[in-house]
Design goal:
2 domains, 65% helix
Length: 334
């Protein structure tokens, strides 16, 4: 349903757009023309569920990967693609450690990722081939899963060198961002992108997203320098002082929080569309929670449970940041 700018209780006149001859600004018109985002009712329900499940699985694999690392099970299967020399499955013996089952279980989840991505590709080929902006991201999703598996294998073969382990997480972050993009596009039309905020606000949002990417990368550097290497017998670290990189990470987070507030405030002052405000409010709230958890785990000596929560929040952070950037524009049905 479209908002009526003359009756909307939270209407604010834009301060940067040029007024049209009718007396209503072009930015305001674009904002009010954006309908509530809903899935195409003509699509089978399973299509939407396929996109949602794909996103959930991509986030879930970050958590299970964290469990592998935090339990010291990263080399539970000491080789790749086999689990043990000559076998693709664990060999159960009396002295068998639980680590091999933790690592093997995480490897099996790769097939869940493949199945979820395959469902998305099938949905696109059967129901969305006529729409733009789906085939390339879906292909990138599949290739990303393959790259993730290969990087995971290399990580095992180089005894969990932290540079490869953090690369594994960063690929997961990219796959989460791709999954969010696909889900948002599913609920949009194929018309030209209509900005819901002035260009200067969108530019500020892109700068904020870049800083957010730096935050994520620095977070992996902190992890790669900390005590949780993924294997207690062969700990390999990046060699940075944990305290130094942790404070650098914290400084980047503070900068990101300030930029997020700036984007939210600018969107609130220059647009009447609710979607941008809500998306950036969610991102800001999630970032604050993530920051609190991060400071707490650092103060308590990085206990495993808090580290795992921090990893889950990092995955959700990537999803929320991607959604917030995409929320600054809308595509009408062509």
């Amino acid at each position: 349903m479209r908002d009526d700018p003359s009756h909307s209780p939270d209407h604010r006149g834009p301060t940067t757009a040029t007024d049209s001859p009718s007396g209503t600004s072009s930015m305001s018109s674009a904002a009010h023309a954006a309908p509530d985002v809903r899935s195409d009712p003509a699509l089978p329900r399973w299509v939407t569920w396929a996109f949602v499940v794909n996103l959930v699985v991509e986030i879930g694999i970050v958590v299970t990967g964290g469990l592998v690392r935090l339990t010291g099970s990263g080399l539970g299967c000491p080789t790749w693609p086999q689990c043990t020399p000559g076998r693709y499955t664990p060999v159960v013996k009396e002295a068998t450690s639980y680590h091999i089952f933790v690592e093997f279980g995480n490897r099996l989840l790769t097939f869940v990722l493949v199945a979820a991505a395959a469902a998305v590709v099938l949905a696109i080929l059967r129901h969305l081939r006529h729409r733009r902006g789906f085939l390339l991201p879906a292909a990138a999703l599949v290739l990303g899963i393959v790259a993730q598996a290969v990087i995971g294998g290399i990580s095992v073969r180089v005894d969990l060198h932290p540079a490869w382990v953090l690369s594994h997480f960063l690929v997961s972050a990219l796959l989460i961002a791709l999954s969010v993009y696909l889900l948002v596009r599913l609920n949009e039309g194929d018309g030209p992108a209509v900005p819901l905020v002035p260009d200067v606000v969108r530019a500020l949002a892109m700068v904020t997203a870049a800083v957010g990417a730096v935050v994520v990368v620095l977070g992996t550097v902190v992890t790669g320098s900390g005590p949780h290497s993924g294997d207690a017998e062969k700990p390999m670290r990046l060699g940075f002082a944990v305290k130094d990189v942790a404070w650098l990470h914290a400084d980047a987070v503070l900068l990101f929080v300030g930029l997020t507030v700036a984007v939210w405030l600018a969107a609130r002052l220059t647009s009447t569309a609710r979607r941008p405000r809500r998306a950036w409010e969610l991102l800001g709230a999630l970032t604050v929670v993530q920051g609190v958890v991060g400071y707490t785990q650092f103060a308590l000596g990085v206990p495993e449970a808090l580290v795992l929560v921090h990893m889950l929040l990092a995955a959700l952070f990537v999803a929320a940041l991607t959604n917030a950037v995409l929320a600054l524009r809308h595509r009408h049905h062509a």
